[in-house]
């Protein structure tokens, strides 16, 4: 297992230290943006993020997708296999609590290198006897051609084939554990059915709009070319209200700087209505806040903070997830739990017990060290323990009996939701 450099922790919490990196790389994306800004004026931060991250030719994710030791950031599954294993157990415990339906789609949004899915599938294999009568399949929603190739190698050993244009999945195969696996560009393309959704460090990379309160009311923060310095970008305020200002600022807002991610809202609405219709659950793990933070937009390159406006397309851009907004956007179609801190969630899932077992089974001191180091990385409040959160969407009947009106105690109590309560596995 690669040891995560401590610098990886810098990506985790907004306001963490680390000097912004000097601009480097080729300036193709900057030249493209500069032309666009000169021709049509400033763009929203959302539009800037979309170009910098997913522009087909020069976007950061489309071209590089720097996850892992040699990339620009490291994620929890890259640090420790225990993380993914416990998430796998969460899905199985929810599947059991919901009466063991006979199909089980695992749908991951933005699966990175596929490490997390791999860890979850290992758990499914170990618990194959429990899942024996269940039809399990894996569905990955991935826009990056480069990352989907990496995922295919990791999860199938390369046993995949591209699909014709008229199929909803653009690629399919069989995992090393013998389960059908499919790739899609959009969550809409994933077939309906009983599904467990996973979004780990997915929402934080979606484009945000930024707003600033001024004496004249709310103004949107835009990106423009700096007239003083050729080909340098700068933030400016919109001269008047923009459509986004009208649509996204709540009348009861008390902060003076707000970030809103409409795409996250749309995806949560889709998840909530799918869960309402077909059952299942969604688990979101990300750094974020519950509607309290203001300016969290930042860039990462080579594990260091990087100026968001310099050398676009060469750095990862990210912003904290506003869980209060996600809750609002679920619009009551699904019940929500959390956010709760990562260390509480993992503790409830039995990480301490799992660590003890792994330590007892580890022969050499290097593995021993690595296990303790990765546990500290995931659980230490100063590292990932406090700034990562878990948030779940579940069908209402999972938390409240549909016929609560009759006050008799004939109904057995519903099993608690693991992670948000202590895990009780019979």
UniProtKB/TrEMBL annotation:
Q: State the EC number(s).
A: 2.1.1.320
Q: Where would you say this protein principally sits, based on its record?
A: mitochondrion
Quote the subcellular location field of this record. Mitochondrion
What keywords appear on the UniProt entry?
Answer: Methyltransferase, Mitochondrion, Transferase, Transit peptide
- Name the residue ranges with Basic and acidic residues bias: 401-410
Tell me the Pfam families matching this sequence. Methyltransf_28
**Its catalytic activity?**
L-arginyl-[protein] + 2 S-adenosyl-L-methionine = N(omega),N(omega)'-dimethyl-L-arginyl-[protein] + 2 S-adenosyl-L-homocysteine + 2 H(+)
Q: Which GO terms describe its biological process?
A: methylation; mitochondrial respiratory chain complex I assembly
Which GO molecular function annotations are given, in alphabetical order? protein-arginine omega-N symmetric methyltransferase activity
Q: Residues annotated as region Disordered?
A: 401-420
GO cellular component term, pick one: mitochondrion
Database matches in InterPro entries: NDUFAF7, NDUFAF7_sf, SAM-dependent_MTases_sf
Hey, which family's this protein in?
Belongs to the NDUFAF7 family.
According to its UniProt entry, the function of this protein is described as:
Arginine methyltransferase involved in the assembly or stability of mitochondrial NADH:ubiquinone oxidoreductase complex (complex I). Acts by mediating symmetric dimethylation of 'Arg-118' of NDUFS2 after it assembles into the complex I, stabilizing the early intermediate complex.
Protein name (Swiss-Prot/TrEMBL): Protein arginine methyltransferase NDUFAF7
């Amino acid at each position: 297992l690669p040891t995560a450099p401590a610098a990886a922790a810098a990506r985790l919490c907004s306001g963490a230290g680390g000097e912004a990196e000097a601009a480097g790389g080729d300036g193709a994306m900057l030249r493209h943006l500069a032309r666009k800004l000169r021709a049509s004026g400033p763009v929203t931060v959302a539009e800037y993020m979309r170009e910098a991250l997913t522009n087909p030719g020069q976007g950061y994710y489309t071209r590089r997708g720097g996850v892992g030791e040699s990339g620009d950031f490291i994620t929890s599954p890259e640090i420790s296999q225990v993380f993914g294993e416990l998430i796998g157990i969460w899905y199985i415990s929810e599947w059991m609590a919901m009466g063991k339906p006979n199909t089980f789609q695992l749908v991951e949004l933005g699966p990175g290198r596929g490490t997390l899915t791999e860890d979850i599938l290992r758990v499914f294999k170990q618990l194959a006897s429990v899942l024996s009568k269940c039809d399990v399949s894996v569905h990955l929603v991935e826009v990056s051609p480069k990352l989907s190739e990496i995922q295919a190698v990791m999860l199938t050993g390369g046993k995949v084939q591209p699909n014709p244009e008229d199929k909803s999945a653009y690629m399919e195969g069989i995992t090393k554990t013998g389960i059908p696996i499919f790739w899609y560009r959009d969550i809409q393309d994933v077939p309906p059915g009983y599904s467990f959704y996973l979004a780990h460090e997915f929402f934080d990379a979606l484009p945000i709009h930024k707003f600033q309160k001024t004496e004249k009311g709310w103004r949107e923060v835009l990106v423009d070319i700096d007239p003083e310095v050729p080909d340098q970008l700068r933030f400016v305020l919109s001269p008047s209200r923009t459509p986004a200002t009208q649509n996204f600022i709540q009348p009861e807002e008390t902060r003076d700087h707000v970030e809103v991610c409409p795409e996250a809202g749309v995806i949560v609405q889709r998840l909530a209505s799918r869960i309402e219709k077909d059952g299942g659950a969604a688990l979101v793990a990300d750094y974020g806040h519950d509607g309290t933070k203001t300016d969290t937009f930042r860039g990462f390159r080579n594990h260091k903070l990087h100026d968001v406006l310099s050398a676009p397309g060469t750095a990862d851009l990210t912003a904290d997830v506003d869980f209060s907004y996600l809750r609002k956007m679920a619009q009551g179609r699904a019940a929500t739990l959390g956010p709760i801190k990562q260390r509480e969630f993992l503790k409830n899932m039995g990480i301490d017990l799992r660590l003890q077992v792994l330590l007892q089974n580890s022969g050499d001191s290097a593995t021993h060290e690595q296990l303790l180091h990765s546990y500290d990385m995931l659980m230490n409040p100063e590292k990932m323990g406090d700034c990562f959160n878990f948030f779940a969407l579940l069908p209402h009947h999972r938390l409240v009996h549909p016929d609560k009106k009759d006050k008799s105690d004939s109904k057995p109590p519903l099993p608690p939701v693991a992670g948000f309560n202590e895990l009780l596995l019979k």
